[in-house]
Amino acid sequence: MKKMIAVILSLLFVLSALSGCSGGQAGNKVLTVATSPDFAPMAFVSADENATGNDKYVGFDMLLAQYLADEMGMELEIKPMSFDACQTAVSLGAVDMAISGFSWKEDRAENYNLSDYYWAGDNEDEQILITLAGNEGKYDSLEKLSGVKVGAQIASLQQSLCQEQLTDSEIVVVTDLTTALMQLRNGDFDVLAVAGGYADAMMINNSDIIKTGFCFEVDPKYTGNVILMTKGEDELTATVNALLAKAEAAGYYDIWYAQAKSTAGIQVVYDEEGNAVETLP
Question: Would you say 35 and 65 are in contact if contact means Cβ atoms under 8 Å apart?
Fold first, then answer.
């Protein structure tokens, strides 16, 4: 029953978010892209309160979306919605694609056309847990997480990692990461599973949040990101893959990630050889 209710709510959210949408069907010159703008530095809401339309949404994935639209000779239309609703929208064919920090997962490979990998710096390399500042050293090992309530975004890589590696913990599913931060403060769970890059961005304006010191084991297949497209959209997928290869060859990924980090307020410390050694909020 709970799963059925979740599906119904997700469908209603998609329909609401897409109301008035022109759609990106074949022959349409508008490229519709679903994203969950709660995941800095990949996709988040601009700090500019005067920003409107697509300009309201910034980050690596938004730069990538604009690049794809420009290269395809199409107008970009960003459709903001929850992370799980992005996937539902693609399944329904209500948008052309979803770009929202998606990791490769077996169930996604079965249910969607997935693009080739693209890489947003080190954002996906480190998958961690965050907690309230008063809990320093309390949840820094697997043993200390036994019986602990762990928050994880629904349908995310973090949820899968929690289910696979924190088998003695209680997993609490959340919909939105911004709301999840409030839930962490309210005591709905003790720690929250997030990508390392998101933690760096989030800690800038939230001094009461810290990293626990625990890191998940991350298979290399999860360290890249993929774009979700409707199953069977092979021509669109081929076009996207060709453009991703072009972007990688041109060195755009590093440029976009540096710009996204800067927009999110993340400062990077470099050693004498020019290697990034620490990211500071």
Answer: yes
Q: What are phi and psi of 231, to 5 degrees?
A: -55, 130
**Whole-number Å distance between alpha carbons of 30 and 211:** 41
Rounded to whole angstroms, how far apart are CA atoms 245 and 256? 15
Write the CA distances from 169 to 8, 57, 126, 130, integer angstroms: 28, 35, 20, 15
Q: How many CB atoms lie within 10 A of CB 105?
A: 19
* Strand 149-153 versus strand 191-195 pairing type: parallel
Paired with 230 in beta bridges are 112
Asked if 227 and 98 touch (Cβ cutoff 8 Å), the reply is yes
pLDDT at 105: 95
Q: What is the pLDDT of residues 112-154, one digit of tens each?
A: 999 999 999 888 889 999 999 999 999 999 999 999 999 999 9
Q: Which residues contact 187 (CB under 8 A, 6 or more apart)?
A: none
DSSP state of 232: T
* The pLDDT value given to residue 21: 44
Q: Count, in order, helices (H) and strands (E) of the chain.
A: 9, 15
Q: Which residues pair with 195 in a beta bridge?
A: 127
161 vs 194: CA distance, rounded Å: 10
**252-264 and 234-249 are packed helices; what angle lies between their axes, rounded to 10 degrees?**
90
The CA-atom distances, in angstroms, between 251 and each of 88, 197, 258 are 32, 20, 12
Residues 169, 145: contact at Cβ < 8 Å? yes
The pLDDT tens digits for 88-103 are 999 999 999 999 999 9
87: helix, strand or coil: helix
Pair 184, 131: CB distance under 8 Å: yes
Q: Phi then psi for 243, rounded to 5 degrees?
A: -75, -35
Which ranges of the chain have pLDDT less than 70? 1-28, 268-281
